[in-house]
Specification:
Helix content is 25%, strand content 28%.
């Protein structure tokens, strides 16, 4: 039950010596600014490198190093073989060290832009950011990107370490110019403190002791500053928060609620409520591996027992009654996009906040943040490593706090629903509330009543496949059969709908998602009327078809894959579309320059090659009978 980082499944070091204050800090910056070298130097000068490891480092320095006869301290953290050979940091490396005054957990983050997601992982648990800049280059795009991410992720303290001053002859003018430029860029980031220190990580200047080679610098050494800075003002402002990880029921006489305290503290006798339901209970006992305890504080992994039997499940959030979390299905958030494929507003992703995972989509991309200027720019999507501000809608209400108030309950990740890859990291800004005068109206006549009047069951038959696969032809034949049987149906054809309801939509990925969302809503309304709804849409993306399935629920959704090879579709080309697409007249054409994702587990797969339309329609009728839709 050890808490994971806000945006990752990997475990961050959780130890915290009781006799010394702990500082978690992150090193970040651009490629080859000297982050790993600096941390290695700090470890060496704080005597945190065992003698056998130091001997190994000396051997590796001769093999991999670039510092001549000197020890190459960067190799201490670049532990992967690829990192050592390429001279880059790929993963986040965590190290613990201690001085007489303080203990430290340092996260060495990668500088390459494609590993921004790793940097965000390290930043999500840090109290301070140590941002390195190469004195020869000054602040670059990645410097600005990391500064912005640190600000968004709630880091309130920044140290700007201008490194490699030895390569510019320890010129004060170079240092001052870099610091002035950086201060102007971060002036709107609301950092609580920003300290600039001139250093040479390779030679140790101003790292643990003041250097005689910078007589013009009157400030502290880096280590002295890290030992003394007060970061207690970065604590959470919310009350007690306890995301429920699981319900422990080893036997009939014990029911415990297991999880990790995300904020505040709790003791036996304290009241708690379940966010959302508002049901209140009293803490009876706090159980740990070592036995009962009198109080659980932030970061403690415990099992709570309650004096009353109430409904609590994994994903719920227990809070203090006097300091409740927000509970809504819409909110605004900053988003760091981490996937090669661009964000598609309207597409359904998994959203994981705390221990709750729900379907969610971006309803509006308000703006993208320009890394160079910080300006807000209108955008329709986000590309890899871009940052934006979005409105979200979730399939169910979730409990959360604004990220500025609580980094644990205000952070979330988006997950691709089909690859399970992390697509983005998000920070909730505030909840959005629907107009209070709009409510769902209860209806006297149900969908079942309407279908029973027609002696059938409502359903949606969703035909998907490439253009030219035969979807419309098969759909027409199916509806003719249903009419002959006395069934009540409605056929929605993709081309026909684009002449009316969806005439304002194009064929970009974003427009395709909105096209399917609208069609799903229309299909649901028709199914509510008791009809058998037949749809014939390319609907190329699995995520969008899943979205339609969820919209239509609880009506049966029968996905039919009209499986016709691309070569056969091109040979048929009944509307001449493939010829136009190849001539460049139709962009984003599915199957050519836009992908088609075939269903993995459709209710029915129809191969149209060497099968007649009548035979295919009869197969569909048999499927409807098997599902109890028609008799």
């Amino acid at each position: 039950m050890v808490a994971a980082p806000a945006f990752s499944g990997e475990n961050v070091p959780a130890f915290e010596p009781a006799d010394k204050p702990l500082l978690r800090f992150l090193t970040c910056g651009s490629v080859d600014d000297g982050k790993s070298t600096l941390i290695g130097r700090l470890l060496h000068e704080s005597a945190a490198i065992p003698s056998d490891q130091l001997a190994s480092l000396e051997r590796d320095s001769r093999r991999f190093g670039t510092t001549g006869d000197d020890i190459d301290f960067s190799l201490l953290l670049d532990g992967l073989e690829d990192e050592r050979q390429q001279r880059i940091t790929i993963d986040v490396a965590y190290r613990f060290f201690a001085t007489k005054r303080r203990s430290f957990i340092v996260a060495d983050s990668p500088g390459h832009e494609q590993y921004t997601r790793n940097m965000a992982t390290g930043a999500s648990t840090a109290d301070l950011a140590l941002l390195l800049v190469d004195a020869r280059k000054g602040a670059v795009a990645q410097t600005r990107r990391h500064s912005l991410i640190c600000s968004l992720l709630g880091i309130r303290h920044v140290v700007l370490a201008v490194n490699k001053l030895d390569l510019v002859e320890f010129d004060r003018g170079v240092f001052d110019a870099i610091v002035d430029e950086f201060r102007r860029y971060v002036s709107d980031f609301h950092f609580a403190s920003m300290e600039a220190i001139p250093i040479s990580a390779r030679y140790g200047d101003n790292v643990s002791n003041r250097s005689p080679r910078t007589p013009w610098y009157r400030g502290p050494s880096l280590l002295d500053y890290l030992e003394t800075i007060d970061v207690t003002d970065s604590g959470d402002s919310t009350g007690f928060r306890f995301p429920v990880q699981w319900i422990s029921r080893p036997h009939d006489d014990f029911r415990g609620i297991a999880g990790t305290v995300a904020a505040g503290s709790v003791a036996p006798g304290d009241p708690v409520i379940v966010a959302g339901s508002g049901v209140e209970a009293t803490i009876k006992e706090i159980v740990t591996f070592g036995g009962p305890v009198d109080r659980a504080r932030k970061g403690d992994a415990v099992t709570l027992t309650l004096a009353q039997e109430i409904d609590v499940t994994r994903g719920d959030l227990l809070t203090s009654p006097r300091s409740r979390a927000q509970f809504a299905d819409q909110f605004a958030a900053h988003l760091i996009w981490m996937k090669e494929e661009q964000l598609v507003p309207g597409r359904s992703y998994w959203l994981k906040v705390g221990t709750r995972t729900v379907p969610a989509s971006v309803t509006t991309l308000k703006h993208r943040i320009d890394i160079d200027s910080g300006a807000h720019i209108a955008a329709r999507t986000l590309a890899l490593n871009e940052i934006g501000f979005c409105n979200f809608a979730t399939a169910r209400q979730i409990a959360f706090d604004p990220y500025a108030e609580n980094r644990d309950t205000g952070a979330f990740i988006l997950i691709d629903r089909f690859t399970n890859e992390t697509a983005a990291a998000g920070m909730i800004a505030f909840g959005l509330h629907r107009a209070s005068n709009v409510h769902m109206q209860a209806l006297t006549v149900s969908a079942e009543d309407r279908a029973a009047l027609k002696a059938q069951h409502a359903a949606v038959v969703w035909l998907t496949g490439l253009s030219g696969a035969g979807k419309s032809t098969i759909a027409n034949a199916l509806e003719a059969r249903l009419l002959a049987m006395g069934a009540h149906s409605m056929l929605l054809d993709g081309d026909n709908v684009r002449h009316g309801l969806n005439r304002d939509l194009g064929f970009t990925d974003t427009d395709r998602v909105e096209n399917i969302r609208r069609l799903g809503e229309v299909a649901k309304l028709m199914a509510d009327a008791g009809l058998i709804v037949i749809t014939a849409f390319i609907s190329p993306f699995r995520a969008d078809r899943q979205m339609a399935r969820e919209i239509v629920a609880p009506h049966p959704f029968i996905e039919v894959f009209v499986d016709t090879p691309l070569d056969e579709c091109i040979r048929r080309d009944p509307k001449g579309l493939y010829a136009k697409a190849r001539a460049g007249e139709i962009p984003n054409f599915t199957g050519l320059d836009s992908p088609y994702e075939p269903p993995e587990e459709p209710e029915l797969r129809l191969s149209t090659v060497r099968r007649s339309v009548d035979a295919l329609a009869e197969t569909l009728i048999e499927t409807l009978r098997a599902h109890g839709i028609v008799g």
